[in-house]
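INFO batch 0412 | record 1 of 1 | parsing
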Amino acid sequence: MEIFIVDREKFIDAPARENLVRLVEKILLYLDLSARSELCVSLVSDADMRGLNRQYRQIDTTTDVLCFPQESEANPDLLGDIVISYETAIRHSRRLEITVEEELRLLVVHAVLHLLGFDHKKKKKRETMREKEKEVLNYLAGAE
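INFO prediction complete | emitting tokens
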């Protein structure tokens, strides 16, 4: 299992970076993905996220998280890329009255499930995804 954290803006310090790696490891282990997983998590600014959202989704605003599946026949171990707007995560955490770490946990779980094909555009799929998110978050709460 290889997990890469990209944080060019230096939003988080070394201990927080290690915590994020351990979080991703726990999620991948729980979802039985550790044997075939290479994943990159990038923390970006709202401005960078807006540019990515505009480029890939044609939506000219920032968002909290984007994910890009990368698995292919040539490289089945590569799960994909997760991009998180750290500034949006801070705002969400304040609004929800949770820590930034808790918000990052929510975003990473959500994004990993997207990488696995879960979706929330239709009601039935949204319910399935929400249930899986709750399951993984409950596991993480017990694993701490």
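INFO post-check: The chain has a mean pLDDT of 91.
INFO record closed
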